[in-house]
Amino acid sequence: MPNPWLLLLIAGLLEVGWAIGLKYTQGFTKPLPSVLTIITMIASFYFLAQALKTIPVGTGYAVWTGIGAVGTAILGIVLFAESSALPRLACIGLIVAGIIGLKLTSPT
C-alpha cells in the first residue's frame, strides 16, 4: 500500500482544488466547473478513505481539513485578493503547526 500520509496529502490538495472550484461553479450554475469540482470532491474523499485505513480517523480528518483550510486560504489570498493581514496569516500558521503536531504524534 502506498504511504498513507502521501495519500492524505493528495486528499488534502484535492480538497483545496474542490473548495476553490466551488467559487468557479457559481452555485453549480456553470456546468464544466461544476463537473470538475464534483470529480475532485470524489477523488479527495477516495484518497482520504484510503489513508484512513491506516491513519487514525481523528488525526486523518483533522490533517485533511487542515491542509484544505490552509491551501484554500492561501489561494484565496493569491487568486481572489482576500485579506493577507498579519493576524490572518498567524492563524493560518497555527493551523500548520497543528497539522505538524498531529503528524508527529501519530502512531503511524
Structure write-up:
The chain crosses the membrane at residues 31-49, 61-80, 86-105. One of its GO terms (molecular function) is transmembrane transporter activity. Pfam families: Multi_Drug_Res. It is a multi-pass membrane protein. Its main location: membrane. With 108 residues, the protein is mainly α. The protein has one domain. It is built from 4 helices and no strands. Helix 1 runs antiparallel to helix 2 (31-51). The mean pLDDT is 96.
List keywords for this structure.
single chain; 108 residues; mainly alpha; flat; Guanidinium exporter; transmembrane; cell membrane; transmembrane transporter activity; transmembrane helix
Number of helices: 4
- Pattern of helices and strands: HHHH
Low-confidence stretches: none
Q: State the major sheet.
A: none
Structural class: mainly alpha
Number of DSSP strand runs:
0
Coarse morphology: flat
Mean pLDDT: 96
Spatial gap, N to C terminus: 13 Å
Tally of separate domains: 1
Report strand %.
Answer: under 5%
Helix content range: over 70%
Q: Give me the Rg, rounded.
A: 15 Å
Transmembrane segments: 31-49, 61-80, 86-105
Keywords: Cell membrane, Membrane, Transmembrane, Transmembrane helix, Transport
GO molecular function, one term: transmembrane transporter activity
Membrane topology: Multi-pass membrane protein
Ordered list of secondary-structure elements with their pairings:
Elements: H1 4-25, H2 31-51, H3 57-80, H4 86-104
Helix pairs in contact: 1-2, 1-3, 3-4
Describe the structure concisely:
The protein is mostly helical and 108 residues long. It has helices at 4-25, 31-51, 57-80, 86-104.
